[in-house]
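Friendly challenge for the regulars: who can give me the structure tokens for this chain first? No prize, just bragging rights.
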Amino acid sequence: MKITSFFKNSLAFLICLISMVSFSQKDFQGKAYYETKTTVDMSNFGGGQLSEERKKQIADRMKSALEKTYILTFNHTESIYKEEEKLEAPSQGGGMRFGMMNFTGGNQYKNVKEQQLLQESELFGKQFLIADSLPKLNWELGSESKMIGQYMCFKATAVKNADGFDFNSFRRRNSPEKPKDSTNNKPEEIKETPKQIVVTAWYTPQISVSQGPGEYWGLPGLILEVNADRTTILCSKIVLNPSEKDLIKAPSKGKSVTKTEYDAIVKQKMEEMREMFRGRGGRGTSN
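First reply, four minutes later:
Bragging rights claimed.
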């Protein structure tokens, strides 16, 4: 059985190699369309003080912001990953808005040759340009394969530290799970260790570029699917060598900061939002 499986996987890989698209032309370009979905654990949202009905209202408003379509425009060494423009639904107004953090993610540029990552971001009306080196994952290549559309894909896994905005961390400072200092009766700050998550990716050697959606890259083929914690990214369409090519250009607008510096700014803003939430009556469900 093992020998049969080995030859089966080897044959599938050879088919991919034989059917590879030619990337010899200098002006090669491709476009991959991705659909993303992220679920949020609402069990402790708002410090566990919200009713189930209120949680559902918030989850419904988050849904449109957590289910998006992105376009990855790529060549041999560079790519631009940006959200597909869509008409926004009319605002329902009132209540707690998902956009309370006033955060807008912009275009993301990756250069695998120069190991460069540039991310546009707007926070409370201020434009930032996050400049850093490409994050490296120690991919473990597997032999498992499956078809995504017309492309033969192979499985790869890696472990990484979770980062970015955590909706579950938006809770009251004096929520029950935070201990208090016995000397001054004030809530102690909890030092959280980085959460590690398993990333599962599916890549196709038929498109031999080391690119992928978001921060993901570094495999011997275009990444068509990613599963990481509560987020799923799936490629729905690929266009190779479109008749009208886009300019892949590194962004340059905004205040230049590193990823570490930007995370610190976001953390500070989250703390300010917590304080404002408490001041507006976030102490409990009763008025």
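The longest strand covers residues 151-161. DSSP finds three helices and twelve strands in the chain. Your move, everyone else.
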